[in-house]
């Protein structure tokens, strides 16, 4: 049986929800989550969730699948690669946070389905103004509350997240690297995030900036943060962190670590240095006190039993004596 010729106008893609190849004969329903990942090249991920793909009159289904995927890639359709997941990403973020000032509610209106409509939302930056593909979310100082926003994993091409100067609380998700694997910029400063620093942050390998200052984070700074080769800015000042600063992070200024009473090591004071200095001072004071007391006792005894040994002079200080 020979394969029939395939004609696939791009307008029949129907926003990747249903792909139909004319010819009749066979329909293959396929549900796929992460179809492939190209994150190692910095390109991002192609994600089709719960999509149905139909193939007709082909002798080799595997070849049909490859051919259809090639057509999807060739089309370069932004609706295939960004629209559905990124719109769903923002919907979930809006639903998962508390917005007492209505900043997101008044701006993030999803009734419009035109290309690039989400790019006009407050705090949303897109890769291109005519496509619904999020480049970064900058939601600083909007009075937002609640825990870390949900649904961010659907913004698969997002490289920047700024939640600073809000009232977010609770832990930073342990699976943050899975949600935000392509980030280069993460700013969670001036919130109320608590708990330990997730080791998973070390898997966000493209991270250049990590700002966590002025929260309520506790525990140690994971040594795995040394696995962030592109890290240029790192700030954890004004938290409740403790332990030694990992050697790979000691290149950052001391101002980026201050405000953590239990934190030590360069560029701050040496671990145990303060307690050792205090111990030495106590020993010196104790020894000085003992020496002074012993000298007083000896002088008193000698003055009492050998008064003829003391010579007083008006030209000298009183109480000068010879032995």
TrEMBL record:
Q: Which SUPFAM superfamilies match?
A: L domain-like (SSF52058)
Q: Name one Pfam family in it.
A: LRRNT_2
Respond yes or no to whether keyword Glycoprotein is given for this record. Answer: yes
Q: Which UniProt key words apply to this protein? A: Glycoprotein, Leucine-rich repeat, Membrane, Repeat, Signal, Transmembrane, Transmembrane helix
Where mainly found? membrane
PANTHER family recorded: OS01G0891700 PROTEIN, OS10G0469600 PROTEIN
GO CC terms? membrane
Name the UniProt record assigns to this protein: Leucine-rich repeat-containing N-terminal plant-type domain-containing protein
Annotated ranges, domain Leucine-rich repeat-containing N-terminal plant-type: 84-127
Membrane topology of this protein? Single-pass membrane protein
* Protein origin, superkingdom: Eukaryota
- So where does this one cross the membrane? 290-312
């Amino acid at each position: 049986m020979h394969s029939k010729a395939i004609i696939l106008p791009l307008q029949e893609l129907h926003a990747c929800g249903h792909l139909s190849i004319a010819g009749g004969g066979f329909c293959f329903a396929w549900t796929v989550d992460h179809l492939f990942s190209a994150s190692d090249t910095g390109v991002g991920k192609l994600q089709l969730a719960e999509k149905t793909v139909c193939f007709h009159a082909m002798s080799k289904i595997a070849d049909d699948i490859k051919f259809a995927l090639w057509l999807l890639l060739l089309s370069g359709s932004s609706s295939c690669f960004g629209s559905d997941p990124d719109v769903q990403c923002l919907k979930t973020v809006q639903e998962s946070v508390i917005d007492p000032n209505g900043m997101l509610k008044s701006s993030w209106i999803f009734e419009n389905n035109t290309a690039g409509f989400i790019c006009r939302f407050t705090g949303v930056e897109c890769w291109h103004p005519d496509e619904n593909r999020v480049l970064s979310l900058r939601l600083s100082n909007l009075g937002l509350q609640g825990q870390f926003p949900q649904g961010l994993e659907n913004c698969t091409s997002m490289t920047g997240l700024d939640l600073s100067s809000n009232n977010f609380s609770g832990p930073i998700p342990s699976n943050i690297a899975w949600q935000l694997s392509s980030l280069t910029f993460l700013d969670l400063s001036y919130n109320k995030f608590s708990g330990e620093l997730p080791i998973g942050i070390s898997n966000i390998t493209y991270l250049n900036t990590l700002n966590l200052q002025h929260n309520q984070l506790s525990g140690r700074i994971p040594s795995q943060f040394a696995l962030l080769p592109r890290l240029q800015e790192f700030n954890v000042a004004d938290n409740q962190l403790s332990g030694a600063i990992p050697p790979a992070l000691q290149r950052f200024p001391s101002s980026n670590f201050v405000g953590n009473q239990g934190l030590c090591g360069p560029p701050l004071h040496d671990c145990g240095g303060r307690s050792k200095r205090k111990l030495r001072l106590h020993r010196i004071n104790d020894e000085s006190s003992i020496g002074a007391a012993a000298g007083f006792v000896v002088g008193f005894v000698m003055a009492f039993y050998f008064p003829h040994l003391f010579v007083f002079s008006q030209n000298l200080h009183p109480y000068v004596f010879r032995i």
